[in-house]
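Slide 14.
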Amino acid sequence: MKSKKDNIAEYILYLWQIEDYLRAFPEQAYSNTELMELQEMMHMEGIIYSGHLQLAQNALRELEELHDELIDTEAPYRAVMIHLQPSLNLFKSKTDRPGMSDVEACLTLLYQVMMLRLQQKEISPETEVVVKDATQLLRFLSKTYYDNEAAV
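Slide 15: predicted structure.
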């Protein structure tokens, strides 16, 4: 399994991808212990058809808390966020959850683009720019999270 400490953003995206995989093949008998455990968690948490594992929600909450802290303390991070905000607001307005956090919006955007690429669908140049900025923001968050965890 991806390690939350190594890259928390990739960890969340990985869990979302596994959730979708397990939903696509619900009757599959998995020999992989990790998949069996995650499938059982999905059953226990009642998210067979939609929603996210508590593991993913907790990691997202940690990233959101770090985001709030960095907005107040890190000028370069705040500058990237200010630049990204209009695009994120537009993206959120086009979803079924316009009130989602900025961090969740970045992750959702990256996940949706990843799914489009897997389907070999074209990504507009404008979207590519937003993806680049969202990736930069999440990379900074993940590195700071890693540095904080390593310091503990």
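Speaker note: The chain has a mean pLDDT of 94.
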